[in-house]
Structure formats: structure tokens, C-alpha cells
Specification:
Layout: H1 2-8, E1 14-20, E2 24-26, E3 45-47, E4 54-60
Antiparallel strand pairs: 1-4, 2-3
GO biological process, one term: urate catabolic process
InterPro entries: Uricase
GO molecular function, one term: urate oxidase activity
């Protein structure tokens, strides 16, 4: 999204994001006979209460690049 914004708006120099790093863990459903703990079979997840920090990124225009 950021690259598209910078590409489409010539006066825009950069776009930055800081998003919460949220983790979702698979729910153990063996008690009802469903395998949900292996990555290939996991379909039901539970979000952890608190984020584990922020993931951030910035996309900026390269003014030194020849057009």
C-alpha cells in the first residue's frame, strides 16, 4: 500500500507504518478429537491478550534515481 501511495502521489515523500505484533496460537482441540496443533492442520486460533511490540516500516521516494 505504501509503495502505491508514494508512486501515485508525487508530492508524498514517504509513508510509514507502526502496527502491533499480535500473536495467535492454535487451540488444543484433542479433547473433542480434532487435530489442531500442527501448522498444516491448525484452523482455530486464540489471540494473545497483549501485543509483542510493534512492527514498523517506511517506504520512501528515491530522489537520486533517474526517471
Amino acid at each position: 500500500m505504501a509503495a502505491q501511495l508514494v508512486a501515485e502521489h508525487g508530492r508524498l515523500e514517504s509513508v510509514g507504518y507502526a502496527l502491533p505484533n499480535r500473536h495467535y496460537v492454535p487451540v488444543d482441540m484433542k479433547y473433542v478429537g480434532i487435530e489442531n496443533m500442527t501448522p498444516a492442520k491448525a484452523e482455530v486460533f486464540c489471540p494473545l491478550a497483549a501485543p509483542s511490540g510493534l512492527i514498523s516500516a517506511t517506504v520512501a521516494r528515491n530522489r537520486n534515481r533517474k526517471q
